[in-house]
Write a structure and sequence with these properties.
Elements (H helix, E strand, L loop, with lengths): L2 H11 L8 H6 L4 H17 L1 H28 L2 E9 L2 E4 L6 E5 L3 E8 L4 E6 L7 E6 L5 E6 L4 E6 L12 E7 L5
Parallel strand pairs: 1-4, 3-9
Antiparallel strand pairs: 1-2, 4-7, 5-6, 5-8, 8-9
Helix pairs in contact: 1-3
Bound molecules: copper (II) ion (CU).
Length: about 180
C-alpha cells in the first residue's frame, strides 16, 4: 500500500487531520488492511477520553462566560411591572389600557393583582408545553389575589378564565404579550 494512500485513508478516518494530527502519524505504520479499523478504534479511544475532557472544560468555561454575560444583561434589562386585572361581566380589563392586554418585555418580573368583581373568575395562562407559564389563580368576588411571575419566554400567550361555574366565562380572554429583550 502506497504511503500517500494510507495517509489519505487515515486522514479520512480521523476527519482529515492526518497530516497534522498525531493520530495520523501513529496510523501511518499500520498495514493498510487494518488502518480503518485501527483508526476507528483509536478515534473511539480519543473520543471517550481526551477530547470530551477538553470539550467539557471548554463548555464549562463557555457556560460560565455566558452566565456572567447573561446576569449582567438581566440586571440591566429586567424590570418590575405591575398590572391590575379585573374580571367582570365575562371580560378582563387591564390597568393602563382599554384592551385586555398585558404588555411586557422578556425578563420582566410581572406582578398581577387580579380582582373578580361579580362572580369568581380565574386568571389562567400557559404556554404550549407549560415550560414557562403555568398560572391559574382564582379570585373570589371582592377578594383580590396578587402573584408574580417572570416573563421568561417571548411571544403572545392567551390568558383566560378557566372556571366552569358559568359557561360565559369561556368568553373571557386576553393576551399576554412578551416582547423580546431590546436589541434583539
Ligand atoms: Cu370567569
Amino acid at each position: 500500500m502506497a504511503t500517500a494512500e494510507t495517509v489519505a485513508r487515515a486522514a479520512a478516518a480521523t476527519g482529515g487531520r492526518a497530516g497534522t494530527d498525531t493520530l495520523g502519524a501513529i496510523l501511518l505504520p499500520f498495514p493498510a488492511r487494518t488502518t480503518d479499523r485501527a483508526s476507528h478504534l483509536l478515534e473511539g479511544v480519543v473520543s471517550m477520553s481526551i477530547r470530551p475532557v477538553a470539550r467539557v472544560r471548554f463548555l464549562v468555561a463557555a457556560v460560565a462566560i455566558v452566565l456572567t454575560a447573561a446576569s449582567g444583561v438581566l440586571v440591566v434589562a429586567q424590570a418590575k411591572r405591575e398590572f391590575d386585572v379585573v374580571g367582570r361581566n365575562y371580560r378582563f380589563s387591564v390597568s393602563g389600557t382599554d384592551r385586555p392586554e398585558i404588555r411586557v418585555t422578556e425578563g420582566d418580573l410581572v406582578r398581577i393583582t387580579f380582582t373578580a368583581e361579580d362572580i369568581a373568575h380565574s386568571f389562567t395562562v400557559e404556554d404550549k408545553d407549560g415550560s414557562h407559564y403555568r398560572i391559574m389563580r382564582r379570585a373570589e368576588p371582592g377578594r383580590p389575589v396578587s402573584f408574580d411571575f417572570r416573563a421568561d419566554r417571548a411571544g403572545s400567550f392567551r390568558f383566560y378564565c378557566s372556571l366552569t361555574i358559568d359557561d360565559k366565562c369561556r368568553d373571557m380572554q386576553g393576551s399576554l404579550q412578551v416582547a423580546p429583550p431590546k436589541g434583539q
